[in-house]
Amino acid sequence: MLTLECPYCGVKAEETELQAGGEAHLKRYGPGSSDDEFESYLFMRKNPKGVHFERWRHAYGCGKWFLAARCTATLEVFGTYSAQTKEPPADLQAKIKAKRPNWEGYK
Amino acid sequence: MSKAVSALGGVSHKGFAEVAEAGLRGMITVRGDLSSAAMKKAVKAATGTAVPAARRIEIDGDKAAAWMSPDELLVMVPYEGAQDAVAALEKALAGEHHLVADVSDARSVFTVKGSKAPEALMKLCPVDFGTLAEGEIRRTRAAQVAAAFWKSGADEFTLVSFRSVAGYVMGLLEVSSRKGGEIFPA
Lengths: 107, 186
Known about the structure:
The structure holds 2 protein chains of 2 kinds.
Chain A: E1 3-5, E2 12-14, E3 19-23, H1 35-43, E4 51-57, E5 65-71, E6 77-82, H2 90-99
Antiparallel strand pairs in A: 1-2, 3-4, 4-5, 5-6
Chain B: E1 12-14, E2 18-21, E3 26-31, H1 37-47, E4 57-60, E5 63-69, E6 72-77, H2 82-93, E7 99-102, E8 107-113, H3 117-122, E9 137-142, E10 145-153, E11 156-162, H4 166-176
Antiparallel strand pairs in B: 1-2, 2-8, 3-6, 3-7, 4-5, 5-6, 8-11, 9-10, 10-11
Helix pairs in contact in B: 1-2
């Protein structure tokens, strides 16, 4: 069972109160982009065994989208943070790096 | 005007906890900047309470203001007073970016009473009752539908759901509170 803390209301919500939204920090390509870029934005997703950044929505609570970093292999949650960020907070990245020295970074 | 009635006509059941439909309640959704001075004035005018902090509910007699999300409040007043409260809120929030909507007829209210009331809700909601603070409103799900509840008395919880699922919620509460179904039997 996955338990994530919503960064907006502070509720420790379990999985069934949340709605999964797929990979976080996607760069959006729209009109004017190349076909390859657009295809990669639409279809190409990471599928790592290990650290993964995801979008979640507190669907049965405050209704806000937030981002979470967790390990897909162990279900360990490293942290959750606001969706209004371009990249994972530096302190969270440092925390993950400390726990997973072989982690290559979020890019 | 036609006579307003609640979804289930105040039906109640008595098991190890007493569950009842509480009847009509005036409910108003307010969205906007919760930290603004105008919002403070508006909530004061409508309910006489302060703007609730995150996840809190401020209760004053038969009126209350509950925190729904970082930009949303639920203002509760007696059913007959909903129109007046909407007018008061609109007046206080004029010129601000805001939304005020009377949702009284879209909601149902239930009460769960008794010393074992939490046990009836524990079976339905994925909530840690050990960490549920006094004066906290918890938005969650009751089995398959959205609901919110708070502790409204010493041995009483009030639960709010959408009116369209009132029959389902009453069914859940009735089954959940049947005698013999206690989680911690004495």
